[in-house]
């Protein structure tokens, strides 16, 4: 009797599984996704491209050590699929803000991928105290003209932070001689990179023996550049409508104190949360502004949030 029950249970399980597979196969699909087979998932070894570069400076991929380290980062970032898709989605939203600022400063476009590995294009906070998409330290931010305090922290202002990153990178390039070393210095500091170059008597990043983080740094940047530039090649499937879009905004000038940002937001047909989403650099629910400094607060155009008329 027990055997018969077990057989009947297995038959029932098989029927349920068959119905599930049938339902999945017959489920409604969308556009070119309808030809994708749900269970066709495989893991493949990746072919490292014959040529890769950062800011026009080639990687020496004929060096077996460099080849293996590049292979590692391509594998790690290709098969971390959820994170990869998020990078595609966020890049569509934030690259259009970053790219023209890089171009204005004459900083190679490839540096937008540095922001990707620094923060995942989020307003991250590091254990060392770096903040924002560009992970700027407090002292560096102030040195390059950002306001950083409990009330206002412009490291969270993407436009201003990108300007600072550009100035730092240009200074690093002038001091160290290449964009690759300038990028490495963004992680390890100009003095740290200079010291290691001198100690090891080399002049190229790829000849340096470095710690884990800085040693992987350029390989991670180039891997993200390669993957984000060729989604189909690395198995990422999405439609334009799957990507995040920046909500159009306009700027309101403020040169006085603001005692209550909740009331301020309501005057423009939004709530405090929406105001903070577009102005994460406002760190408190009020603005002190004793110096009567000129600030520009971003507000969403009407029709993008349900609270708006």
From TrEMBL:
It comes from the Bacteria. The keyword Metal-binding does not apply. Keywords: Signal. Residues 105-204 form the Transglycosylase SLT domain. CDD domains: MltD-like. Gene3D superfamilies: 1.10.530.10. Residues 1-23 form the signal peptide. Coiled coil: none annotated. InterPro entries: Lysozyme-like_dom_sf (IPR023346), Transglycosylase_SLT_dom_1 (IPR008258). Belongs to the transglycosylase Slt family. PANTHER family: MEMBRANE-BOUND LYTIC MUREIN TRANSGLYCOSYLASE C (PTHR37423:SF2), SOLUBLE LYTIC MUREIN TRANSGLYCOSYLASE-RELATED (PTHR37423). This is Lytic transglycosylase domain-containing protein. It comes from Corallibacter vietnamensis.
């Amino acid at each position: 009797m027990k055997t018969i029950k077990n057989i009947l249970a297995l038959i029932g399980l098989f029927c349920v599984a068959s119905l599930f597979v049938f339902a999945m196969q017959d489920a409604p699909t969308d556009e070119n996704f309808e030809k994708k087979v749900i269970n066709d998932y495989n893991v493949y070894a990746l072919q490292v491209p014959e040529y890769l570069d950062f800011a026009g400076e080639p990687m020496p991929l004929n060096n077996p050590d460099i080849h293996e380290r590049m292979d590692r980062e391509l594998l790690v970032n290709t098969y971390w699929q959820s994170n990869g898709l998020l990078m595609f989605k966020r890049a569509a939203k934030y690259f259009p803000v970053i790219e023209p600022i890089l171009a204005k400063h004459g900083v190679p476009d490839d540096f937008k991928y540095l922001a990707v590995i620094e923060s995942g294009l989020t307003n991250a906070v590091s254990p060392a105290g770096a903040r924002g998409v560009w992970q700027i330290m407090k002292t560096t931010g102030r040195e390059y003209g950002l306001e950083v305090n409990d009330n206002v922290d412009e490291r969270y202002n993407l436009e201003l932070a990108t300007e600072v990153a550009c100035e730092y990178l240009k200074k690093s390039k002038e001091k160290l001689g290449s964009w690759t070393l300038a990028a490495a210095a963004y992680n390890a500091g100009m003095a740290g990179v200079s010291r290691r170059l001198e100690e090891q008597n080399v002049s190229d990043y790829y000849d340096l023996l470095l710690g884990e983080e800085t040693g992987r740094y350029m390989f991670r940047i180039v891997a993200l550049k390669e993957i984000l530039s060729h989604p189909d090649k690395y198995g990422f499937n999405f439609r334009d409508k799957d990507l995040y879009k920046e909500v159009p905004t306009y700027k309101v000038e403020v040169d006085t104190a603001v005692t209550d940002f909740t009331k301020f937001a309501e005057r423009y047909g939004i709530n405090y949360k929406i105001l903070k989403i577009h102005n994460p650099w406002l760190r408190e629910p009020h603005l002190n502004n004793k110096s009567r400094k000129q600030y520009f607060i971003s507000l969403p155009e009407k029709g993008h949030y349900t609270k708006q008329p």
